[in-house]
User: What shape does this take?
Amino acid sequence: MPYISSKNMLEDARENNYAVCAFNAENLEMVQAIIWGAEQANAPVIIQTTPSTVKYADCAYFAAIVKAGAENSKIPVALHLDHGNSFELVCHAVKSGYTSVMFDGSHEEFEKNIALTKQAVEYARAFDVPVEAELGKVGGKEDDLEAETAYADPFEAREFVERTRCDSLAVGIGTAHGVYKTEPKLDLDRLAQIKKLVSVPLVLHGATGLSDDIIKACVERGINKINFATELRIAYTRAVRERLDEDGQIIDPKIYSEYAREQVRELVRDKINLTMHVF
Assistant: This one.
């Protein structure tokens, strides 16, 4: 089926209390692995790219690759700009064929975050593309941005959604991007309160390294989209190293890339089975 907007995916997840998995892709093999893993789990999936990824290979490349994969797939696939860091990049992703975008103004103060997010929403809505926003700060390092964790205020979250009319909201509850050096302290009560006050699907960033029980607890308290990025990069790179260590004579990239693709596919399947029902 053709790749679609994430809006209906996430609204269904919100109504039925599960989470759609979103996986960051860096190349063709990771796109294939994500789609094939989602097919095995018989579930919708969101493929994401960050600003550094589309700087490496333009949005148009990923739009074409994901479209080709989705049209030969039996499950719904959306293509999302993760952590869009400028209005110009949001516009470029929409024009390139992305079916979902994030504008991340969380590094700005509250009023400026609202103003910038509202601008992105108004632009994307003209093309029927949903917008994810962020309130609070997910700590750690994402691309070239590094931030300390800041918790989202539940009442600010309600005001933020009402004023920006964003379609989904990533909320800071204690997670961080990258690999956790110590066990994170998630504020699940805060998440549950935000869920009661906010009328859009909630997004969890920084899921790499969280235990299965914590992920399930987040879904139970209202998370409807979960992002996985670092775990996939680790799995892919480790697999390439393993394959080349096994056979130092390999010169064909397809050989080690196929092995890495398989490791990512298995990871994707397992993460999806953890977070949602089979429909």
Q: What stands out?
A: The chain has one domain: 6-275.
